[in-house]
UniProtKB/TrEMBL annotation:
<dbReference type="InterPro" id="IPR029016">
    <property type="entry name" value="GAF-like_dom_sf"/>
</dbReference>
<keyword id="KW-1133">Transmembrane helix</keyword>
<feature type="domain" description="Guanylate cyclase">
    <location>
        <begin position="261"/>
        <end position="396"/>
    </location>
</feature>
<keyword id="KW-0472">Membrane</keyword>
<dbReference type="GO" id="GO:0004016">
    <property type="term" value="F:adenylate cyclase activity"/>
</dbReference>
<dbReference type="GO" id="GO:0035556">
    <property type="term" value="P:intracellular signal transduction"/>
</dbReference>
<dbReference type="InterPro" id="IPR029787">
    <property type="entry name" value="Nucleotide_cyclase"/>
</dbReference>
<dbReference type="GO" id="GO:0004383">
    <property type="term" value="F:guanylate cyclase activity"/>
</dbReference>
<dbReference type="GO" id="GO:0001653">
    <property type="term" value="F:peptide receptor activity"/>
</dbReference>
<dbReference type="GO" id="GO:0005886">
    <property type="term" value="C:plasma membrane"/>
</dbReference>
<comment type="similarity">
    <text>Belongs to the adenylyl cyclase class-4/guanylyl cyclase family.</text>
</comment>
<dbReference type="InterPro" id="IPR050401">
    <property type="entry name" value="Cyclic_nucleotide_synthase"/>
</dbReference>
<keyword id="KW-0547">Nucleotide-binding</keyword>
<dbReference type="Pfam" id="PF00211">
    <property type="entry name" value="Guanylate_cyc"/>
</dbReference>
<feature type="region of interest" description="Disordered">
    <location>
        <begin position="162"/>
        <end position="205"/>
    </location>
</feature>
<protein>
    <recommendedName>
        <fullName>Guanylate cyclase domain-containing protein</fullName>
    </recommendedName>
</protein>
<feature type="compositionally biased region" description="Low complexity">
    <location>
        <begin position="167"/>
        <end position="180"/>
    </location>
</feature>
Amino acid sequence: MDEENFLLQECATAKFGPNATDIIFSDGEEEALVCPLQDCATEHCAESFDAYYCQDLVSSESYPEYKTFRRVGSQSFLSVPILIGARKFAGALHIASEQANGFNEIDNMLIKDIGYRIGGHLYSKRLKEEQAESHEASRKLLQSMIPGPVLEKIEEHWKNSSDDELSSCQSSSLNCSSDNTQDNDHSRLTSLPRRERRGSLNFDPCDYESTQRRLENMGILKRETMLLGKKHLTPTSSITSESGISESKPVFFAETQSNVSMIFCDIVGFSRIARTLEPIEVMQMLNDLYHIFDTLCEKHGVRKLETIGDTYIVSGGLLEEGNDNDSGKDAAKRCLEMAQDMVREAYNVYAPTEPRERLQIRVGIHVGSLSYGILGQNVPKFSVYGDAVNIAARMEQTAPVGKVHVSKAFHDLVNDHHMVWDEKRNTDVKNVGVMETWIMNCM
C-alpha cells in the first residue's frame, strides 16, 4: 500500500465549559480509520496547500469527512493543511461548528495559525530526530577510531574548558573596561547565546600584535588546560607561517598508563604472497584473517588498536578500570590466550596462491607502561607509544614462525605451574640490549 495515497483519520470532540477558557476534549467513539486520500477535503488541502472552508455541511457535496461531523450535529466545517517545512504535506486539521457559517475571518486566521504551528512543531521534532541520528552515527564512527572512555574524557574537557574560557573572558573584560575595543568584544560575547560564544570573536589574522594583545587581555591566550599537567598552551589562530602552513592546534588529551599488555602480530612471508596476488585477493585474505581476530578480541575481552598492512595490534588492560589492582595480571592472561588462538586460527586461513598455502604468523607480547592520546586534525587518531609498544614490536620481529615470543616481565606476570614454555633465550633487542625472553608453542 502506498502510504502517500492514504490518510489516518482520528476524531475528537471539544466542548466549551462555563468559562470561555474551559475546553473539554473527549476522544471519538470510533477507532482511527485508514481512508483513501482522494475525493475528500484532505485531498484539497494536500494539493493546494491551502485551507478549505464549507459554510453549510447540510447542503454541500458529501465529502467523507462531512458524514463524521454531521453525526455530531455540526453544520460548518474548516480544514487547514499541516505542512512540514512549508513544503511537505503531513496531514490536515479539521474543525467543525454546530452553527452554519460558524467561522468568521479571525477564526479562519487563528485556526490556520494552529495548523502552521503544528507543522512547525513536527518539522522541529523531525530535525531533532535527524540530528540525534546523525550525532549517533558520528559517535559510532568516532568510537570505531577512538575508544569510548577517551571520547568521554575529551567531551568533559571541552565542557570544562568552555566554562573556564567564558569566565576568564568576562572577568578580564570587566577589569579592563577602559579599552574600548575590548569592551565591544565583551559586549558582543555576553550578548550571544552560551552555545554560540566559543569561536565567535573574529580577529584580523593580518594584525598579529593586535590580535595577540586582545587575546591575552580577554584571557584566551596562554590559558591553562584541564589536562596535560596544567601546561600553558597557545591556541591556534589562522595566522600562517612563511611556508603557508597554519600552526597546529594544541593536543587536548594525553595520559599515561602502566601494566598494559601489548600484542603485535604479523604474517610470515606476506610481501612474497602479496606480490603474486591481485590487490582484491590480498585484501580479501586480510579481511578473512582480521575478521577472525576481531571475533577473538571480543571473546577474550581485549582491545584491537589498529592494523598496519599485515600487522595486527592488540592491547589488554588499556582504559580498563581496576587493571592496576592485580598489576595487570588478568589482562595479561587474556592477551596470552588471545595470542594462542591467533596462531591456531591463522593456520586455518589459506592464501589464494598456486598452490594454496596456510597462513603462519609471528606474535610478540610485552607488559609495561605507555602513553596514549589523540593525534591529527583532519583525521583524528587514537595513538599509543612507550616501552610496552616498542618492546612488544621487537618481540614479534624476533619471534619464531608460528610461536608466541614474550618478554621476561610478561612471563613472570602470567607464569604458573600449568603453563608449558618451549624455551628461554637471550634476545638482542634493538635500542634496549640483550633481554631474557620466553617462547611458547601454541600448536
